[in-house]
TrEMBL record:
InterPro entries: ComF/GntX_DNA_util-trans, PRTase-like, PRTase_dom. PANTHER family: DNA UTILIZATION PROTEIN YHGH. It comes from the Bacteria. This is ComF family protein. Belongs to the ComF/GntX family.
């Protein structure tokens, strides 16, 4: 009742297209929900997400939920999720995607969900990691715990400005590391990020996780963009 009254005086707008939401609509309007550009990667074994890692890292599976187009719904949703503190968008998308993934056999062996960590400085500025709500939502629906401790993003030294290409690459590679005990061995980690473009960040993260004995790694992103 109060919620409806609030809506009357402060109408909410759709996070996908900015049109006014109807009383029965939450976060995104029915049209945007209907138009969500699903990739259906989980139904395609050699999909575009996993293909990015062929020859680079061994993955159990790789999937993305939506296609990311310039000016499209996915871009608008992720922008709101990332910069306007609309973490409930992540929860909603996670809920929707978990329904699709319920019958996706390979996800059943996943033991932990790992959100790609933000740089500590960025986390402090933003106050939250934009993939956390999405991870929690999928984890809740599929009964998989989220682990934010095993993969770390370490501070890098900004004062070293004069670096050749190789040294810079080493610097980038050093950004992620793992902190594990024998309890973390023999696990299947599902690495989650918001958007995949080149896949280089996810590749570095996956390589770090694969340092754990007998680790298996898979990748899941909210959106996929052609690079
Ligand atoms: Zn809309």
């Amino acid at each position: 009742m109060l919620k409806n009254l609030l809506k009357l005086f402060f109408p909410e707008t759709c996070c996908g297209c900015n049109s006014l939401l109807l009383f029965n609509e939450v976060l995104i309007c029915l049209k945007c929900r209907h138009d969500l550009p699903f990739t259906y990667h989980h139904e395609i074994p050699h999909n575009d997400t996993i293909k990015k890692f062929y020859g680079l890292i061994p993955l159990e599976f790789g999937v993305s939920m939506l296609y990311f187009h310039h000016g499209g719904i996915a871009q608008e949703l992720i922008h709101n999720l990332k910069y306007r503190n609309q973490q409930n968008i992540g929860s909603l998308l996670g809920e929707l995607y978990a329904k699709d993934l319920q019958n996706f056999e390979p996800i059943r062996s996943v033991t932990e969900i790992i959100p790609v960590p933000l740089h500590p400085k960025k986390l402090k500025e933003r106050g939250y990691n934009q993939v956390d709500s999405f991870c929690e939502s999928i984890g809740n629906q599929l009964q998989i715990p989220v682990n934010k401790n095993v993969l770390l993003r370490t501070q890098y030294n900004k004062t070293q400005t004069k670096k050749n290409r190789e040294a810079r690459q080493q610097l980038t590679r050093a950004i992620f590391d793992v902190n594990f005990t024998s309890n973390d061995e023999n696990k299947h980690f599902l690495l989650v990020d918001d958007v995949i473009t080149t896949g280089s960040t996810l590749e570095i993260c996956a390589k770090a996780l694969l340092k754990i004995p007998n680790a298996k790694v898979s990748i899941l992103t909210i959106a996929y963009t052609q690079s």
